[in-house]
Design goal:
The chain has 109 residues and is mainly alpha-helical. The protein is built from 6 helices and no strands.
Length: 109
């Protein structure tokens, strides 16, 4: 069985990608987004947290532009990478959980 992407690809909004969409930086950002798409919730958070930690100051803001993941999620992932013993034991949400799409709830659709 082939592992399909769970989330649509995010288009990077950083200045480098906007100015030069075929640059090395743009290719790297697309690769990051391909990896992020394939990960589950917990591993996605930890992956971007690790990148934010490696990139240092300004890394969180840069990852927000690249991946579209919220600041709180990236910071939480960075904290989980830095302090693995203190990481909360939260599980991964089951597929189909959460609010249903409007089309499914509305009688008009």
């Amino acid at each position: 069985m082939r592992n399909k992407a769970k989330h649509p690809a995010h288009k990077c909004t950083c200045e480098a990608c906007q100015a030069h969409p075929y640059s090395v930086a743009a290719k790297e950002h697309r690769a990051i987004n391909r990896v992020v798409r394939m990960l589950d919730e917990r591993n996605r958070r930890r992956f971007v947290g690790l990148l934010a930690r490696q990139w240092g100051q300004g890394g969180v803001q840069h990852l927000i532009e690249i991946t579209g993941i919220s600041r709180n999620t990236i910071i939480r992932g960075r904290d989980e990478v830095e302090h693995p013993r203190k990481a909360p034991g939260r599980g991964i949400r089951r597929r189909g959980g959460g609010r249903q799409p409007v089309e499914k709830n509305s009688r008009a659709f």
